[in-house]
Design brief:
By secondary structure, the chain is of the alpha+beta class. It has helices at residues 15-21, 25-34, 51-64, 82-88, 92-102; strands at residues 40-41, 45-46, 67-72, 75-80, 110-112, 118-119. The strands form two sheets. The chain has a three-stranded antiparallel β-sheet with strand order 1-4-3, with helices on one face. It has a three-stranded antiparallel β-sheet with strand order 2-5-6. Strand 3 and strand 4 (75-80) form a beta hairpin. The longest helix is centred in the middle third of the chain and has 14 residues, at 51-64.
Amino acid sequence: MPDHSSSPALSTITLPSVLGALSDPTRLGIVRVLSDGNERGWGELRAPIAKSTLSHHLKVLREAGVTQTRQEGTRCFVTLRRESLDARFPGLLPALLAAAVADHVGEHVTERDSCGARTE
């Protein structure tokens, strides 16, 4: 199984890579879900796309340094690297999230609650 845990070091995260990763509505939606600081299993994230496409979006976010993925057995868990992003680009993430909420960008990405139902 590939190593999903590696994320770029803080000093190597670039503004163009972060902005590129967050330029897609689905990836911005994933970040909106993760912005509460809680870790999510990949299976908890729901979007109207194929699982392989969701996996690709998670890879783009991880490689840009926006998220960190932890593998536990056969399961993968993802978290937002909020502290790292805030340290590297102060104010960027709150501004992007506020704009995304105001413009309803990424609302199609949700999570499953403990009973398996979609939460909004």
